[in-house]
Amino acid sequence: MHNRQYWETLLQRQAFCDYALIDGKRYVARSANTYGVINPATDTALAEVTACQTEDIDIAVQSARQAFSSGIWSERPLQERKAVLLKLSALILEHREELALLESASMGKPVLDAYNIDIPGAAHVIAWYAESIDKIYDEVAPTRPGTLATITREPIGVVAAIVPWNFPLDIAAWKIGPALAAGNSVILKPSENAPFTAIRLAELALEAGLPAGVLNVVTGLGVDAGAALGKHRDVDVITFTGSTTVGKAFMSYAGESNLKQVWLECGGKSANIIFADCKDLDLAAEKAAFGICFNQGEVCSANSRLLVERAIYPQFMAKLLDKLSDWQPDHPLNPDAKMGAMVSAAHKEKVQRFIQAALDDGGILRAGGASLTIEQVANYIQPTVIEVAGENISLWRDEVFGPVLAVKVFDDESEAIALANNHIYALAASVWTDDLNQAHRVARKLHAGTVSINTVDALDVTVPFGGNRQSGFGRDLSLHAFDKFTQLKTTWIELR
Ligand code: NAD
């Protein structure tokens, strides 16, 4: 695989888009305001990107609405829609190195993770929704004789997709794949930290044959561009992935404006429960380490609460600490890096404050606990494990979004379930046991959108992903994602 020098050379040559993309054209905000995007591995500026505000969002929405109403995409034969999206998937793979580099440089993840996981993942999701276009049938209702009632799905109109920085291209693909496949027009608003792959995605979509205006990308700050989309009276659907606080704001925006549909995929604090009869504790320890360190722990479904049955506690912790030693952070362009830089200095400091508060609250540090400076940049956090003193400390209650694991011991199954469920978040959970009955029993009782048994973070385009409680209620991926981007129409015919 390519060495560090190869990626450094690519980075030096790489152009960073500093514009939005509206109506098929590069667009600069009317105000001419910009915001800076920083490479967290070097603390240097990558670009000053145009900062869209309400007046720019109006133009993007008009473009999307006009494209939708014209039927140029919404009424296009399904085979043609499919061909365009398959071409987009192929173009994503053709630009795999560039997209991986843009992802890594803006948010700090190891470039090889982006290359091996994120970019092919996005291409696969787009292709999967492309292939699904002509395989979904509508319904005929069992109405009384002399009538025929059809239930058909229609595209809704203008969809605004607001996405975070932790998997910028993947989560954009999770939204635009089904939204475009269903025939909608989309306005994509990437995070201010990582806007580049969204812009390139829209450029590649144009190259693939998507008509102008069907996919617009607006760059800008959340409080400006994001809020303007949330409050816009001609946006029909918001599909949002991000923090619970901002998710709540989107529900208010909808209430204040046109009662647009709002679908939220928000934060998490997922429990990973290790029962004493789990036979492969080595694998459980390896996956527990992965579950908190992958993507620097900047994962909504990170397994950030570890619950271990008392009988195996010392043995399991020894294995876990051993596995965690493989996850020391490194410069993200280093091909051996398993963890890279945190997204920003401010976020790294926030993670450090969580660690300090947990220790001040009586937590016991079992590993890590410090930030690291690599090549003169201090944006790295060691894998950290803290045995927490109670359920009411912030490390147990709040989403940290870093490689910091909160650990508790339990004595029996009911205590494990109670500890796991006593939480505002309900995104994902993992259970390790070789007792089939226990696996099913516990899975049924856990509050979570996804329960992984004998693995962590089970994720595939074929199954829905999303949570309950304050983790939100939307579901990305699988055919169920179409529920967000289509509306049902009943057509009732009295036969004469
Ligand atoms: P964030 O909520 O700060 O930002 C998400 C998006 O909302 C960004 O595009 C941002 O610009 C925009 N935004 C911010 N403030 C806004 C406002 N006041 N009005 C309108 N828009 C606004 O989240 P983040 O820091 O980018 O991402 C991390 C969060 O995302 C974590 O909480 C994580 O759990 C969550 N997340 C959830 C999932 C999931 O599927 N459930 C997946 C990935 C990330």
UniProtKB/TrEMBL annotation:
Residues annotated as domain Aldehyde dehydrogenase: 28-490
InterPro entries listed in its UniProt record: Ald_DH/histidinol_DH, Ald_DH_C, Ald_DH_CS_GLU, Ald_DH_N, Aldehyde_DH_dom
Keywords tagged on the record: Oxidoreductase, Plasmid
Domain of life (superkingdom): Bacteria
UniProt keyword Glycoprotein present: no
Active site as annotated: 265
Gene Ontology MF terms in the entry: aldehyde dehydrogenase [NAD(P)+] activity
UniProt cross-references to Gene3D superfamilies, sorted A to Z: Aldehyde Dehydrogenase, Chain A, domain 1, Aldehyde Dehydrogenase, Chain A, domain 2
Any Pfam family hit: Aldedh
Family: Belongs to the aldehyde dehydrogenase family.
Name of this protein: Aldehyde dehydrogenase
